[in-house]
Design goal:
Blueprint lengths: L5 E2 L3 H20 L3 H4 L1 H15 L2 H23 L25 E5 L4 H4 L5 E5 L10 H37 L1 H15 L3 H11 L1 H9 L2 H11 L6 H33 L3 H8 L4 H37 L11 H9 L7 H28 L1 H9 L2 E2 L1
Helix pairs in contact: 1-3, 3-16, 4-6, 4-15, 6-7, 6-11, 6-13, 7-11, 8-11, 9-11, 11-13, 12-13, 13-14, 13-15, 14-15
Amino acid sequence: MAGEEVYEKKLLDRVADAIVDGLAALINLVRPGWADRNKARMDELKLTLYALNRSPIGLLGVALVIAFVIIAVIGPYIAPLGYNDQLVYCVTDFDAVRLAPPGTVVEVAEDSICTQLGIEPGTYKLWLGADEYGRDLLSRILYGARTSFIVVILVMAVGPWIGILLGLFSGYRGGVVDEVIMRVVDVFLAFPGLILAIALSAVLPSRLDPIIINNELLLGTLLRLFALKPEDALPMVRLVVVVIALWIVWWPVYARLVRGMVLSARENTYVEAARALGIPTHSILLGHILPNILGPVLVYLTLDFGAVILVEAGLSFLGLGAVPPIADWGRIIYDGAQYYPNAWWLVFFPGLAILFTVLGFNLLGDALRDIMDPRTRRRIEFKVKGR
């Protein structure tokens, strides 16, 4: 029809369409007919991505987050050296590589002790400098990205969802169940989250060490996830402790947030219709209420990805998270702070990595908040309407 308003699709919009259509096709292989039944949802998802494509802040956030994920996944494989390769053993002049400034070149000879330690002979340029043991800072930052990535994935895959499920059940059932769950939430929220995480990180290691070390399957899986050597299994347990501590700290806020939204959503007509049809409670909660309150929760989840990275780095900086020789951004800053400002690169570059990563998640979360809000969502969408 002449004069009909349509979306002016750009390259990113076509990419978004391809991603959504590909996702629908994959699900359709497992559940035939799913794409036809959920066409409206897929169209809405495409509109959401169109709106995100028109948000400069959102696109910058997406770019930073994607860069972080890519570096975390491939970082250990592209790192010039290992996270604990100490180049001080490679040269006769100890001070030549100890706290070496950015751009220093180190020659590893074939007959050096380093070759016996597994460092290939050749010329290495320390692009970002080296620490007090002559370890390549660039390599440690790349490995540190993997550490932060695995920690944040493990925390966000469990902690918030404990709160979401309890909030759903509490808000829907009400009564005594609601009172008990909310009073437990109040107890947890009475303590500052960081203080509680510090206390748990200090108490839990002695109890978890034997459980993880004696379970070969769990130990091997964690070592592969964190890209660590078997001899560093014991220091890795401290990272697992941080994850468990953050599980305990992270769920109460989500329980209260979701509970408040469920109190409103449970009075809607579609919920009453589902009850009248005899649909089980768990199906109503997960299939009807949760999808309709997921927007604000998704925004909160996105912002918390950055918060988890900050808290984990903070715990490592305080000596309660990652311990040597594991590469962790917070621990690198802690170890390098004693040499600041002479060895400024030991603080500056890992701090920059934390800054850009957290900024990326915050910008993405801010853009999603605007997109999920109907008042601002339509304003963003209508910017791209043409005739």
